[in-house]
Every structure is written in C-alpha cells, then in structure tokens.
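Hi R.,

Here's the input for the guanosine-5'-diphosphate-rhamnose complex you asked about:
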Amino acid sequence: MTRALITGVTGPDGMYLAEFLVGKGYEVYGMIRGQNNPLAENVRRSVPSVELVEGDLGDISSLIGVMEQTQPDEVYNLGAISFVGLSFKQPELTANITGLGVLRMLEAIRIVGGSDANPIRFYQASSSEMFGRVRETPQTEMTPFHPRSPYGVAKVFGHNTTVNYREAYGIFACSGILFNHESPRRGLEFVTRKISHAVARIKLGLQDSVALGNLESSRDWGFAGEYVEAMWLMLQQDEPDDYVIATGETYSIREFLDLAFSHIGVEDWASCVVQDARYMRPAEVDLLVGDATKAKEKLGWEPRTPFSELVRMMVESDIEDQANKLEESTIR
Ligand code: GDR
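And here is the predicted structure with guanosine-5'-diphosphate-rhamnose in place:
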C-alpha cells in the first residue's frame, strides 16, 4: 500500500486530496498541529480512514519524528498561513510557517530519506501569488516572480527551496504553482466563499449586505476538487518538475458578484455590497491568469469546471447549508 503524508490536511485542499488518495487505495496520514486542534474533527468526519499525526511546520524535530513514524512514499506540503490579508498583519509568522516550513520539511526528508529503492517524493503547494505584479500575461512556469505580500514572498522562498533541494540533493521534489482554487469548503475569510455565504444569507433574509474590499482585481478561478489530482499526477512522473495549474480564464470580483447575485434573482447588487477599507490590502495583485499548457501536455491534466458552474456550486451549497441551520434553529 502506498503511504502518503499530507500537511495542511484540515484545509479544503488537504481534505479533497485525502479523499482522492484514499480512493486510490493509499494509506493516508494527515499532520495536524496542537493536541486539541478543533479542525481535526472535520477531517475525522469527512475522511475517517485518515490517520492523524501530530507535528508542527515550525518545529523540525516534530517533522523528523512524523517522517520516521509514518515512513511515507509521498509527502504533500499543503500546510501554510494561507490568507494573504493576514500575512500583512503577521509577516514574521507567515515567513516562518509558509516559507521556512518548506525548508524544514525538505530537511526532514533529506535526513529521513526513505529507502534507496523508494525515496520519498515531495510536493510543494506553490502559488500564483508569487507572480504578484505580473511581468507577462498569461503566466507560465518561466514567468519571473514579483510577489506583492509577505505571503507571496514566503511562497517564493518555498518554491526556490524546493527547486534547490531537487538540484542539490536529487530529491524528487515538485512545485505546483496553483492559481486560485475555490469550493464550498473554502474558509469564510476568502472572497469567493465570503460572497457565496453572504448571498445565501441575503436570499434567506438573514442579512442585508456584505462588506468587501477591492472589487477590481481579477483572478484565474478553478475548482479545488480537481486541482488535487494535478498534485498527485506530478508525483507519478519519471522526473520531478514544476507546473502551473490554472484554467486560463480570468474574472474580476465584480464578475463573481454578478453571477452569484443573479443566481438569487438580484441583477443590481450595488445596494447589497458595502466597500470597506479594512479589506483593502497595502499592495494588491491586480490580475492573474495562468497558462497550464505544460500540465496538459505532460500530466494530461485539464480543468473541467467552468467559472459559472463554480459560482453556482458555491452559492447553492451555502443556500442549502443556511436553510438547514435556519430550520434547525426554528425546531429548537
Ligand atoms: P487570494 O484570495 O489573495 O487571491 O489568495 P482572496 O480570496 O483572499 O482574495 C482575492 C481577491 O479578492 C479581493 N477582495 C477580498 N478578499 C478577501 N479575502 N476579503 C474581502 O472582503 C475582499 N474584497 C476584495 C482581494 O483583495 C484579492 O484581490 C488565494 C489564497 O488561497 C492563497 O493562499 C493562494 O495561494 C492564492 O489564492 C492562489
């Protein structure tokens, strides 16, 4: 049985990946931080066969311990401080976990190694945020980086460290440069889920408006559930490499709002959206759009969920969720 270790298993990508790997017959270990991590329950409920092990990206001894304990064939490093907005408020923590955490994982792999016949394969969750103030459009694996946040800077460090450990020590290390990938599992602090959640509550009369920051930025939005397959495909190749994973289309926050509100029959949403300076960033990434040709040609990976379908999926999921909560509270 192939063994996989996932850091960041409590996040949406971690859970989709765990489900995917369990479906492929893997023995899956999920690393969680802290003895009473409240998010562990979500993983136990969604993917019960995942075995949870305790470790911290800020502590290399714990990572070496986890590698020795789980003896993984494949390691997926999805753990990070992943909210760009927060990274401006906690830049040092972000550099430590999102950046140095990658170095610690690779050091643990270098030290523990796996067997000669079967060395550990490593996947690093890199990000389109590394492109920041983009030097060309669309962005490819060859586009230079110009990060615009402490998060982006830390991800560049993680990416470069991954490439360096591949070149210096021959570790099978891949970096997946994933553009925004959304789902009903997204945390409420991220803009797409914040909108779908608010739209559902507006439809049910539970709130009147939503406070947002910059509506003009554009992103390349895909569905997280199918992006995890690309991570796995990278580790099944003969040679380690880096890949952009994206849809090749870009839409603004305004366009997301148009589709989300039209789903509940609201064509003019101006009165439902309040602009709030608290959600503006000190430096913004204005436009991202990825070119995933290499992933298509070498991995045979292609996105399947169009933007309109993604928005519909998220809004419908939140409407159902909010309606259930409302029903539960009236019964009580
Ligand atoms: P992003 O996602 O920064 O692209 O990073 P996020 O959803 O936070 O922001 C996207 C864009 O929306 C604008 N925006 C707001 N954002 C939030 N969160 N809240 C608001 O109220 C709001 N109003 C406008 C932002 O300014 C930004 O332009 C995500 C994360 O998942 C990263 O971890 C990942 O690496 C990248 O995607 C790819």
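One thing worth noting: The first helix runs from residue 12 to 23.

Cheers,
M.
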